[in-house]
Amino acid sequence: MLKLENMSSELSDESELKEHDVKHIKKIKQAAGAKGPAKLASAQPDGRTGPGCVPVMPSEPIGPCLPGN
Amino acid sequence: MAIERFARFDNILAMETDAGKHIAFHARNMQVAEISMSAWRTLLAESAATASHGMPLNFDLAPEQSEELAELRLWNQEIDLGATDSDVAILPRSILVNIAQICNLKCDYCAAGGDGTFGEAMKNVELEKIYEQIRALVNDLPSGESLNLTFFGGEPLTAPEALRSLARFVTLQTAGRGLRVNFRIVTNGTLITPAIAELLASLRMHVSISIDAPPEINDRTRKTASGRGSTAMTLKGLGELMKVRSRLGSLTAGAVFGKHHTGVLETYRFLREFDFDMIKVDFAAEDCDEDDSRAYARELAMTADFAYASGGEKELRKIHLFAGYFNALDEQRRLNNHCGAGKSHFTIDGKGRMAACQWFIGRPNDQLNQGIDRAGEAMEPTALIEERMALYSRRQVDSHDCGSCWARHLCGGGCMYVNEVKTGSKQKKDKAFCDRTRNTIAKAIEIYAETRKHEQ
Known about the structure:
Structural class of chain A: mainly alpha
Largest sheet of chain A: none
Oligomer: heterodimer
């Protein structure tokens, strides 16, 4: 893992590189695409629920998964 | 689509698909990128060098590769301030209650004591004790919060009056406090009559129906006490729910896989014919389940491809795991917990005893409140046992020792129950769980790259 104190100069180097020189890494724009049914917007399980499955907040895992994943 | 090979360089995981695409994931920044063929080859070389020498290779690279290496190293070191940590506050925002500790089914793989009783059969739970614990928990919730209350069992619909009473109690407890309550139920669906369907609709219930597969498979493991298959009864109940569909909060199918069944795609094809908002596909961990775990993971990846090919992202997101991964990637959220057990999620059994997770119910050493067994004259039954609560306070990615696993911030650290079943310790990871989770996350990243690329 990197140490934060070493980062400032690397960040500025990196931003220059992004502007002019990056040829091999094309970052994908990460933004919301097609969502499920609108009614689940506030109740959609956040990834990890199983039978007993629980709850659900839009931005945070809350429920425990069940016997499994 | 299928992933053929992986390469790893510190924070960067890269994969090559059978279509010749190269996708990379930055595990700390939660970024996804397409990389060139030459960058892929460089990563492969770095990956191999790191594995064989313990240090990245700096020399002996062709001149044209050094440019790729420089880009990869800068990306590896980058800190994206747009990526944020998603932690779980210690606040009871999810309460699951056993309103019955009996079940009219006897499924082969039941994790609730083998018969829905958690080892202590209760048709009539002690509601006053449950109320007391809920009151103590809800008192801590500040205005503006949401509370998820899940009716669980056993089969909760063996006790509709308890359900009705508890819903009324929670509504009154939270009224006028600026709290939003979502009611949820996990049921086998076999007891849903028109009157029960109306009760669920009146509470705008989020309903999860447990059904594993088409009848010929489901009937083998999800049986009544007398040994008959239960699928027809479940589908009849589902039919009643469909009549009140528009007034339900949501409708989910919950399928459990494991040694008894690994055919995720077959189940998905069956379930998608119904109007479910969400389909859950969970793996029930057992001893010596490594082969079945791999089969499940392969099936789940095929299912994801099938869902995406047939209905795009919207269809894929109906499979709960992928909805979660996509949400985290969209928001570049580092998940530091696999679940909220012991932090935001608590369970209460039929006698008011509290645990962090429903699968810890009925185990005295996992009880988090004093409860009826331990409370003395000087201690309220609702008082928490602080030293046990403290066991859940750390981030799960830390307490489960996820180290530098590339998938840690999409997995969140893994399931404590599975860990315990497989390794004997809540904090000691199960390799099979980690393998199938990484496999599924890699598939999610692969499809995510495909969907977002098309948006640009």
